[in-house]
Amino acid sequence: MIREKIRYAMTCLLLGVLAVLYDEYITSVLFLVAVLFPIVLWGLMQYVKRNVEIELSVPAQIVKKHNPFQIEIHLRNKTIIPILKMQIRLAYQNQYTKQIQRENVYVTLNGQSKQSIEAEMKSEYCGNLNLRIEKTMLYDFLGLFRFKKKGGKTFVITVLPKQYALENKFVPDNPHVMVEGDLYSDKKAGDDPSEIFGIREYRYGDRMNRIHWKLTQKEGSLMVKELGFPINCAILILIELPFKEEMETVLKEMDLICSCVFALSNAFIEDGISHYIAWYDQDAGCMRHNKVEKEEELYEMMAMLFDTRVSPKEQNAPASHYAEYSSEQYTSIYYITAGLTEEKADSLMALAKNAWCHIINTGIPKEEILRYLECLPVTMAQVTEENLDEDILKMMPQQEEGISL
């Protein structure tokens, strides 16, 4: 752009010299036109800038890792003046690192025309991906001026982890913990008198104490109450977020942790098991404690987890959870961490009380930690992204044998 300005200035200077040397009408007119033309051009491009529309759209805002997704840039030029060069700068960032990456798209646009540009993107890591048009630059015919147009709204694209099929039963009955359910099944009846599942007509063998006498009198036939069936919601997936600040390390660690959470929670949902997912929120300064029963709730929870900022220092998730929810009782705890220590293992035991404890380690534990865990009533899985489902399933047979508490 500087070179174009220098060239045009040299042209104007040459025409000025010719106008002085050759005192002719034509040379004077040419010099005057050359001097005034940039002003006219600047005014025209200001008019064009106000009448050009640029809009970004993302058809699918929930995608899976490694899967390509489409983005569309819609352009409209309401004027008759063509645009020979337009630079559209796209900016995107992963919520975990907050580091912005940029890409430029160059297009031309005829007068009185519309144009749509389709591009394909994919993310190598899961998380919330913020995507927007940061700014648009319009250039005039001669390349003398550059006109900046502000970008539009930001799209948040949720990139889900790879889904693994975990078919084994993950939650064995724990005879050491008795937890009263606060949820009731909407599919089958039970024996809990505190909740009514439904009303039906009397059948032979029904107990007399379950007859609904008021409704019987109204309907003119015996009506029986079906009692509620409590659902166990005493399963906890406890997440410990990484604390390192290097972009690539944080992304890889968070990606693997989120993949473990997504795989476990999906397996629970498929088995009809309600559960809690908890982690420490650095911005809120407290534990997030979310109940998950349905697939939609899992997606909402993952979006919140993706939006959580990693801590600048190491956390002890079991200790933080115990400090806020010391009265909670669980039958099974799945503790996902990248940096296991003896202190964290002790905090997990204090939190667990009599719950089954399963540690899913996404990092590389030290030998002394492994020896220390042999003395504790826990199972552990060392997981990698390539064999995540197999690594988790390795610790499952140990549950069936039971753990002496």
Description:
By secondary structure, the protein is α/β, with parallel strands linked by helices. The strands form 5 sheets. Strands 2, 4, 5, 7, 8 and 9 form a 6-stranded mixed β-sheet that branches. A 6-stranded mixed β-sheet has the order 16-15-14-17-18-19, with helices on both faces. It has a 3-stranded antiparallel β-sheet with strand order 1-3-6. Mean pLDDT is 79; it is low at 183-188 and 397-405. The chain starts with a helix and ends with a helix. The chain has helices at 2-21, 25-50, 213-219, 247-270, 295-306, 317-324, 342-352, 367-373, 388-393, 396-401; strands spanning 52-57, 62-64, 69-77, 83-94, 100-109, 113-121, 127-139, 146-150, 155-160, 183-184, 192-201, 223-228, 230-231, 235-239, 275-281, 286-292, 332-337, 356-361, 378-382. It is elongated and about 120 Å long.
